[in-house]
Amino acid sequence: MTRSARALLISIAACRPDVPVAVPGAPGELVPAIDLDPDPDVVEVALRAEVAAVDLDGIVSEAWGYRDLGGTGEVTVPGPLIDVPAGARLRVRLENALPESTTLHFHGVRLPNAMDGTDLTQGLVRPGETFTYDFVVSDAALYWYHPHFETPSQVWKGLYGAARGTGDSPAGRDRVFVLSDLTVDAEGRRVLDVPLDQRRDGRQGERVRVNGAPAGGTIALARSERWQIVNACTARFFTLATTGRPLTIIGTDAGAVAVPYERDALRLAPGDRVELFVSLPAGATTELLALPTDRAGRVPAGETVTLWTATRTALDGLPPVIATAAGALPVSSGTPGLPVRSVRLGQGVAPNGDPIFSVDGVPWPFETPYEEALGATAIWDVRNDTDYDQAFHLHGFFFRVLEVDGVAPAHATLEDTAEIPRHASARLLISFDAAGAWMFHTHVLDQAELGMMSHVEVR
Ligand code: C2O
Ligand code: CU
Question: Does residue 190 line the site of ligand 1, with CB under 6 A?
Answer without folding.
Answer: no
